[in-house]
Amino acid sequence: MLISFSVSNYRSFGEEVTLNLVASNKLSDHRNHCLPIGDTGKSVLRTAVLYGANAAGKSNLVRAMDFAQSLVLESRRRGPTVERFQFAAEFDTRPSSFEFQFLILERVFTYGFDLRPARIEAEWLTVAKGEDERVVFERDAAGITQVENTDKLFPDGETLTKLLKNQAVTPLRETQLFLNRLSELPPSAQGETLKGVVQWLTSSLVILPADYRAPDLLDRLQSDDAFRDFSATFLRQVGTGIDELRVEESEIDGPPNLSRMARPPGMTRGLRSSMTEDVDLRPNPEDPTRMLLRALLTHHLVNGRAYPLPFRDESDGTRQLLHLLPVLADQTRVFVVDELDRSLHPLMCREFIRLFSESCPGARRQLIVTTHEAHLLDQELLRRDEYWFVEKDAQHQSRLTSLVDFNIRKDLQIEKGYLQGRFGAIPMFGSFEPLRSLLECTATEDSNHAPQVSST
């Protein structure tokens, strides 16, 4: 689980800001929204909702997480293209910094790195031991990695220390992270501790952009009966009109000419432009001369009769919702969703958040979303420490503030307070008078006269 994420000198973030998901000990409501952090006596929140005006920096926080994760996932021979803060000259000489703190294997790990446009400046992995923080490895700008003895820190500590030292013998390219090199090892060779760290940073943390489309949606709907039933039931219960989801598969000759290929029933556009979220084409493993064409269809039950429709004929909101349903079905991962409210009704957003927060108590999963949907600001829905506000200061730097930092009553209508500007993070409009003259329209002579109709 994500405990905190910090970033500095990246896009609209100048000085360091931290999204801290440690639950406030001042609050006692919605206890099932928290999970214990090992034996520290603290808890971590399962949900965080971020608000802010357009261009305040909400999506930049999501991009920062995605960028940091991509450097762990990808080995780059060229220097990472980091977008530094542009509105103060001193940031030109500072490195950009990214740091995750997360809970796995009942231990709190901290992983981070500093980088400049041409090289990795520093990298570190630490683990909490009581009140102390113990270094697992540290890497410097020259690509030299110092490995500490972890024999007494983990059950596989002796093996881990040996593995890290063996990998650290060869200096790194100045553009490659040490953890990236470690992630390229077979999981069986990583050992339990290292595998847990790598897996959390590369696959347990799932970042979904605003236009996200699940690449494995067809596979999962076809092979996972439980997920398909859950998805169809959800869509049925929220009034989409969908009663059933089906993945239909057919064989065609191959190799195909995509521009001339016959379309599956109900498709209204060429296959080349349709091989995306609801249609795909692949070789038949049993016959290389044939191709398998799959299409996702929705079935609507009207007057006792089922009417199939191609999935792409459903509304944008319905399609968006189906691609987000793995978030609700998953029990172990951390999902970061940019613009949850895109194409979704306000009540749908609320029910999505409510179902995630209240279902599967004790499940080690999290949901972090950015949104403009003010109806989610309700203390009956979430705790005050689950709400965050992003706002730019006078230096154009994005800042993060938790609602718990404001002295408010437990019964306050926070939606109303937010829209009134009590917590910031709303658009600040100037006068529109200068625009009026630019919008003045001169009526033409013809527009001032109604057309004449003669009668005979």
Please describe what this structure looks like.
The protein has 456 residues and is α+β, with helices and mostly antiparallel strands. The chain folds into two domains: 2-208 and 338-419, 3-Layer(aba) Sandwich (Rossmann fold), CATH 3.40.50; 217-256 and 273-321, no CATH class. It is 24% helix and 28% strand. It is built from ten helices and 19 strands. The protein has helices at residues 58-73, 157-168, 178-183, 187-204, 217-223, 225-237, 316-329, 346-358, 414-419, 433-438, and strands at 2-8, 17-20, 34-36, 43-45, 47-52, 96-104, 107-116, 119-129, 132-139, 145-147, 205-208, 244-253, 279-284, 287-302, 305-310, 334-337, 366-370, 387-392, 398-402.
Low-confidence stretches: 256-274
Strand content: 25-35%
Mean pLDDT: 89
Structural class, from helix and strand content?
Answer: alpha+beta
What topology, given as strand order, has the largest sheet? Answer: 2-1-6-7-8-9-10
Shape: globular
Provide the domain count. 2
The CATH C-level name of the largest domain is Alpha Beta
